[in-house]
Automatic annotation (TrEMBL):
InterPro entries (alphabetical): YJL171C/Tos1_C, YJL171C/Tos1_N
Record keywords: Cell wall biogenesis/degradation, Glycosidase, Hydrolase, Signal
Sequence similarity: Belongs to the PGA52 family.
The protein's name: glucan endo-1,3-beta-D-glucosidase
E.C. code: 3.2.1.39
PANTHER family for the chain: PROTEIN TOS1
Domain Cell wall protein YJL171C/Tos1 N-terminal: 35-99
Record GO biological process: cell wall organization
GO MF term list: glucan endo-1,3-beta-D-glucosidase activity
Keyword Transmembrane helix among UniProt keywords: no
Pfam families named in the record: YJL171C_Tos1_C (PF10287), YJL171C_Tos1_N (PF10290)
Coiled-coil residue spans: none
Reaction equations catalysed: Hydrolysis of (1->3)-beta-D-glucosidic linkages in (1->3)-beta-D-glucans
Length: 354
């Protein structure tokens, strides 16, 4: 597999790219357009704890939690994760890879829209109790469930995402196709659940477009803010959008490619380790006029590194079943498309307990 990555690069620390260019837009700070953001010292805090959900009762609103310690490479992002998406978005393909030990990586999950191929992947969403999978309770709302082909409603069985632009009402997630029924996934609300993507070292390749939402028929302003992010696996298994999860206690979210302001052409990346949050104000150009390819790698070496890199415009090639050591090295290299501007952002964690 060949990646069209220009060699001429400009690697600067985030601060340098913000000199004389930082500005506020609707409460969000932006600096310069870049092709890659490389986060370093992601493991810098070393260890910590969060409160994990251990029991939920939808009849009484009971939500029990217990303290869980985390440590190690990329912690707590070394724990398994799930991928999440919000429209408007046209996903063309995604591949998940893990290292083999010799520098090469093997593909463990794959989705290709045009051929309607799904290998090792399950699409899900918070639509429990609406279409034959998952549950709904007044206390906790809709649990995780299978999702329909447009990502905007439930389904009774696993369904492949259609090769189309999903609307700004679509909100769906991606897991592996392995059932999680042996207790290893922690507490799970009753209903559908699939295993999450393991770590700590992993690579995802994405191909997608983020076209703008068309006007609403009723004249209301469309929610034109597409996003791609990952969560600690315990969050969607419990209550993704409210208090009965570990999100408020710092188990981890990483916004990979998020349009923060409606109708904007800029996308940011941000770590959330509530109450802590770190994100580079240097931004990616939103692919509103056609699909691009993006690489995400998470590497526990050298203090923990996480990179989001735009590989360039889509070339029609499928992501391969494996990545050679040379291809992996090229993907991890500081380089980008369209001139290759790279922002290096070192995370300065406060001391534990601060």
């Amino acid at each position: 597999m060949t990646f069209n990555i220009k060699k001429a690069i400009l690697a600067l620390v985030s601060f340098d790219l913000c000199k004389d260019k930082g500005h506020d837009e609707l409460g969000t700070f932006f600096c310069s357009q870049v092709d890659q953001v490389l986060y370093t010292k992601v493991s810098g805090r070393g260890s910590g704890t969060y409160e994990a959900v251990t029991f939920m009762d939808g009849n009484t609103s009971r939500c029990d939690k217990a303290t869980r310690a985390w440590s190690g490479e990329l912690a707590p992002f070394n724990e398994p994760i799930s991928l999440h998406f919000h429209g408007p978005l046209h996903f063309k393909q995604v591949a998940f890879y893990q290292p083999n030990g010799d520098g090469s990586y093997s593909r463990k999950g794959f989705y290709h829209a045009q051929s309607q191929t799904s290998e090792g992947i399950t699409f899900m969403g918070n639509f429990g109790g609406t279409a034959g999978s998952g549950v709904f309770t007044n206390a906790f709302g809709n649990s995780l469930s299978f999702v329909n082909s447009h990502g905007d409603g439930g389904a009774a069985d696993p369904t492949i995402l259609a090769d189309t632009t999903v609307s700004d009402t679509a909100d769906f997630s991606m897991f592996t196709d392995q059932k999680c029924d042996d207790g290893s996934c922690g507490y799970i609300q009753p209903g559908a659940a699939s295993r999450r993507f393991p770590g700590p070292n992993r690579m995802f390749l994405f191909e997608f477009a983020m076209p703008h939402s068309p006007p609403n028929a009723d004249g209301a302003d469309p929610n034109d803010k597409p996003a791609l992010w990952l969560l600690n696996f315990r969050i969607p298994y419990t209550q993704q959008y409210d208090k009965c999860s570990c999100w408020d206690f710092g188990c981890g979210e990483f916004d990979i490619f998020e349009v923060v302001n409606k109708h904007d052409e800029k996308a940011l990346s941000t770590f959330h380790l509530n109450p802590l949050g770190f994100g580079d104000p240097n931004y990616f150009r939103r692919p509103s006029d056609g699909p691009i390819k993006v690489a995400l790698f998470m590497d526990g070496n050298d203090g923990g590194r996480v990179s989001v890199k735009v590989l360039g415009r889509s070339d029609g090639a499928r992501f391969g079943g494996s990545l050679s050591a040379g291809e992996v090295s090229e993907l991890k290299k500081k380089s980008g498309s369209g001139g290759g501007v790279v922002s290096e952002y070192q995370i300065n964690w406060p001391a534990v307990g601060v």
